[in-house]
Amino acid sequence: MALHSSFKLYTSADTFTLQPINADSSTSSENVVIQRSTGSVQLNSPASAAPSDEEVLTIYGVIGFVRLLAGEYMVVITERSKAGQIGTKDIYKVKDYKVLPLSRNTLALTEAQVGEEASYLSLLHSHLQSGTFNFSYDYELTHSLQRQAELKDNTQPIWERADERFFWNKRLQSKFIDHTTKNKDQDLSKFILPIVNGFAEIKTAEINKKPFTFALISRRSRHRAGTRYFSRGVDADGNVSNFNETEQILVADAGLDGAASALPGGQIFLAHVQTRGSIPIYWTQINNIKYTPKLQIFNNPETENTFRTHFEIQKKFYGPQLVVNL
């Protein structure tokens, strides 16, 4: 199930309306209406006359919803750039975005809370402006090629098949996900766009007049994310700080031997995956003015169990492990 790739976003005082744009640039009869006062969602709400002051914006996906002190905000993609293709699937980068308030009630906030709201919004913008968010409407970007080959149910929507470790905006998408799972006749799956936080660079080249595509993709885990020094070690579920998966992909023509003739377009796909993360024990490193801050290892009785849990997860996803100390 491919996702909707662009929308008209109609904004009025009472609602946000998402209307998909078809391939021929016409608008779809399908729509999602979000009530600004309550935050409620409705698929294919009956059309109403558009207010004269209604604003119209073209967007390329909904990143999700964030609740702060003054209420909910909807984060949308307003500009994208194409990173390249893997096979026949397009991969995009988020170039620009908007944070749109639903029902902002700043009058109910104290002066201190107004300042806190501004700080939270500043942090949100700082994160979104980091420029490291990638997505695709029809490629399983949260999965390596190996995991894609092993997916058993291809009829599920992309968000449901996504590797939840690298589904960076999964929490932000909970409004649409919860609405879909709780209402059988209200399936918003085509509106739920998984975003990957990481790196994506795709280049084409030739060797002896034979074209090939080389891609380098990194996926940052949403579990125990943090910057170096500020987040270290492992948690009770075996998740380590700053975990990421890096995949090198090579796509080339199958050649004359027919070895990959059954693959789409007669192409052969090769990939190499490696992961990295913090040492899976309980430890910390307090950031100070020293070049190498002193680290502290905790004598936690659960260390052995969480260490084992981490590598059981690793073996489940990647098989036998070769561990290198960086």
TrEMBL record:
Give the InterPro entries listed for this entry. Answer: SAC_dom (IPR002013)
Q: Which residues form a coiled coil?
A: none
Which protein is depicted?
SAC domain-containing protein
Q: Give the UniProt entry's GO cellular component terms.
A: endoplasmic reticulum
Q: Which residue range or ranges hold the SAC domain?
A: 124-326
GO BP terms: phosphatidylinositol dephosphorylation
Q: Which domain of life is it from?
A: Eukaryota
Q: Name one GO molecular function term.
A: phosphatidylinositol-4-phosphate phosphatase activity
Return the Pfam families for the record. Answer: Syja_N
